[in-house]
Design a protein that fits this description.
Chain lengths: ~100, ~700
């Protein structure tokens, strides 16, 4: 198993863990954590492919990841703001109880 | 065509119009209704006089004048109707309108206390219209229609006090009994039409009483070898049997006395019952068809039937009249007997003989009935002769006129019309070529007539008063009849009632003189010939012998009546009749009218009732059953349709909708408003898509 393969394995493991968390946790913050985990897993995937690319002096992958982290941060802020707004409205952080869009 | 012949239809039309107008007036406009009736009748009388004058002036010129018009078309054939004016018609018109007018005037007094005064005059006018229609008709069909109308009005008038069950039953009996005769009449009429194609009597050679038609009828023969003319004549005569109360069908006439007395006088004495005699006179050419000789010696089978039935009726009814206790019943049976005389006269002597007796009888019988009405009115509705008596002191005018009528009916010699008309019949009967038995029967009936009339006069007018002072009215006439007179004595009737009596009495005397053998004006008038006074006419042909015989018979009858009822005064109302003491069994049979009604009840009416029960059973179970079956079939079909609709169509549709709703509910569960489950779904779908992609690439 090459180092690339093990990096990929790690990132997909992280992704799956993050996905599982996003899909199954009750608390909204934990769902956010899962989403963050998924994002970071994707970042790790990018870095892995950039590191083990023959031409690794160009910073393409590196810059991509920097942007991604920045966007993740912004998105986390927005997400938290949504959760706080939701909490102010419904007094609960349990997303199982927020079913007013039910058909 | 003179004015009067063209407008002869006015004579029946005026009373018909009066009837129509009275039918529309309220019950309280009594004077209006009676004035309409009397006015129309007076006008009709005047027109009849004009017609009579015209007929007088055409003696020797034309035998009759006719006006025919087409009425109803069916296919290519036309039914025609028409009226005629000939001496027979003219005489009948004058008699009917004159006697009718007098009776109408009398009725204003007699029915004054009745609350249905207006209805009475409406029906009377209708009757007059119908009777006059019968008289002027030139078509057997028109005659039949008016004949039926006369029967209808007779029913309405007999049952005038319809709340009384006996009156309603009598009216029904009259109508049904005459209907039986009318059925035969209709059959004869249809047969006549089928054989000759004509129902008009006289139609310029094509009528059914004219030579060509008569020749056709005489030529053909039918069952039992009799000619078609005989068959038709007997059938038409059967109609007259019903209407004129001859023996098998006489049962309705005495019961018809339930009607008010003016009705009895007009319809059941003077006019309607005479319609049968008039009919035979009218179709006399048919009756005498096939005989070799002319009028007086004609003895065709049809005329023999007429004679025998007439003779039997005359004696039968006279026997019954001897034993009756009701003043009107005696007169009713007397009418039946006299009608038998008229038929006898027609059969043996021809039209003139029968019609002369009809005319004289109309006057004196109407007089007798109106007199009886006056007596009933004066005795406060009492009709039993055992409870009357001595009325000559209380009702002198009624007594005098009644006596004149009674003597006329008996045929008292020389001064009374009945003598001359009865003598004409007896004279013709003596000379009848076929048999002399009708003469003997007629003579016997004359004896009985004198006997029962004397009996009646002794019971009612002579002797002492037997009426109890405070008795109940007999409830035979209008029981609600109020009376202003509070005295218990009988009283004379008002002038409006005694006036017609006096006039009729005058005619009962004077009319005799138009038919004496010395001056046979009536006979010659009917044959459209002129007459001259010939005193020697008294002494030819065996006339003196007949006159002597009839005088003897009358005096015998009067003497017998005096012997039984005049010698010892009748003291109490409960005392048995003198004849009853003599022969109780025979008297009882006569009093019960030979039990004819009971016989009919046990035979024909029983059969009829059985048939009606059968029809009822049929109707109730069979026809009703069919209807029931059909209706239940349809109900079953509708039940089937409804249950198909409810359980199959409706339920199926409901099920369909249910499944759509369930499907919808199922799908709605997908949308539970939980973001995580949506994302899970996306994840699963994505995985499946990727797997699909890899699988398709690897293939």
């Amino acid at each position: 198993m090459t180092s690339l393969t093990s990096c990929i394995l790690l990132s997909s493991l992280l992704f799956v863990i993050g996905l599982a968390g996003a899909l199954t946790r009750r608390n909204a913050i934990l769902v956010l954590i899962g989403i963050e985990l998924m994002l970071n897993a994707a970042n790790l995937n990018f870095i892995a492919f950039w590191r083990y690319h023959p031409h690794s002096e160009t910073l393409t992958g590196f810059i991509f990841v920097i942007f991604s982290i920045g966007i993740a941060a912004a998105e986390a802020a927005v997400g938290l703001a949504l959760i706080i707004s939701l909490y102010r409205h419904t007094r609960t952080a349990n997303i199982d109880e927020v079913i007013s869009m039910r058909g | 065509m003179t004015w009067i012949v063209r407008n002869l239809w006015l004579i029946p039309a005026l009373p018909a119009l009066a009837a129509a107008l009275s039918a529309l007036t309220k019950q309280r406009n009594r004077r209006f209704a009676s004035s309409l009736a009397i006015g129309s009748m007076a006008l009709a009388f005047l027109l009849s006089l004009v017609a009579f004058a015209h007929a007088l002036s055409s003696i020797g010129l034309s035998e009759r004048e006719v006006l025919n018009f087409p009425w109803l078309q069916f296919g290519t054939e036309w039914l025609k109707l028409g009226w005629m004016l000939d001496p027979l018609t003219a005489v009948m018109l004058v008699m009917v309108t004159f006697v009718g007018l007098l009776i109408f005037i009398y009725s204003t007094g007699y029915m004054d206390h009745d609350e249905n005064f207006t209805r009475f005059f409406c029906f009377l006018s209708l009757f007059a219209a119908a009777m006059l229609g019968v008289v002027i008709a030139n078509s057997l069909l028109l005659l039949f229609m008016c004949w039926e109308l006369v029967g209808l009005t007779s029913y309405l008038l007999i049952g005038f006090w319809y709340q009384k069950p006996s009156a309603a039953a009598a009216a029904k009996k009259a109508f049904i009994t005459t209907r039986i005769g009318d059925l035969a009449f209709l059959l004869g009429m249809v047969w006549l039409y089928s054989q000759t194609g004509a129902l008009l009597f006289y139609d310029q050679g094509a009528g059914c009483l004219e030579n060509s038609a008569i020749a056709t009828l005489v030529a053909h023969t039918t069952i039992a070898g009799m000619t078609v003319s005989t068959g038709i004549a007997i059938l038409i005569f059967s109609g007259a049997i019903g209407k004129s109360g001859q023996v098998p069908l006489h049962v309705w006439l005495p019961d018809a006395m339930e009607g008010p007395t003016p009705v009895s006088a007009l319809i059941h004495a003077a006019t309607m019952v005479a319609a049968g005699v008039f009919l035979v006179a009218r179709v006399y050419p048919l009756m005498s068809a096939g005989s070799a000789a002319h009028s007086t010696l004609a003895s065709t089978p049809a005329l023999q039937v007429v004679t025998w039935i007439g003779a039997i009726t005359a004696v039968f009814a006279a026997l019954i009249a001897v034993a009756q206790d009701d003043i009107k019943r005696i007169l009713a049976y007397s009418t039946v007997s006299q009608l038998g005389y008229m038929m006898l006269g027609l059969g043996v002597g021809g039209v003139a003989v029968g019609m002369f007796h009809l005319i004289t009888h109309a006057f004196f019988k109407a007089l007798l009935f109106l007199g009886a009405g006056s007596v009933i009115h004066g005795c406060r509705e009492e009709q039993d002769i055992h409870r009357m008596g001595g009325l000559r002191r209380y009702m002198p005018i009624t007594f005098a006129t009644y006596a004149i009528g009674m003597l006329a009916l008996c045929g008292f010699p020389l001064f009374f019309s009945g003598f001359w008309s009865k003598d004409a019949i007896l004279h013709a009967a003596v000379d009848w070529s076929y048999s002399r038995l009708p003469f003997y029967l007629a003579a016997f009936a004359a004896l009985l007539t004198a006997l029962y009339m004397t009996r009646q006069v002794y019971y009612v007018f002579l002797g002492e008063r037997r009426a109890t002072t405070a008795h109940e009215p007999a409830h035979t006439e209008d029981a609600g009849h109020l009376h202003e007179c509070v005295l218990n004595d009988p009283h004379e009737s008002p002038a409006v009632m005694t006036g017609p009596l006096v006039i009729l009495a005058a005619f009962a005397i004077l009319l005799g003189f138009i038919g004496t053998p010395a001056w046979p004006w009536f006979e010659n008038f009917l044959h459209s010939e002129t007459t001259s006074f010939n005193f020697a006419g008294f002494f030819e042909n065996g006339i003196p012998l007949v006159m002597l015989t009839s005088t003897l018979i009358v005096f015998c009858g009067l003497g017998l009546g005096w012997w039984f009822y005049g010698r010892k005064p009748i003291v109490s109302a409960e005392a048995p009749d003198a004849l009853e003491k003599l022969q109780p069994q025979i008297f009882n049979i006569l009093r019960h009218k030979f039990y004819v009604d009971e016989f009919y009840q046990a035979t024909f009416i029983r059969v009829n009732t059985w048939l009606s029960h059968l029809s009822d059973w049929f109707d109730r179970w069979i026809w009703n059953g069919v209807v029931w079956i059909v209706s239940h079939l349809i109900l079953a079909l509708s039940w089937l349709a409804r249950s198909t609709d409810t359980y199959i169509v409706n339920a199926g549709f409901d099920e369909g909708c249910e499944s759509v709703t369930a499907g919808g509910k199922l799908l709605a569960r997908l949308q539970n408003g939980r973001t995580q489950s949506y994302v899970r779904l996306v994840g699963v779908a994505f995985t499946a898509l990727v797997a699909l992609l890899i699988w398709s690439v690897s293939r």
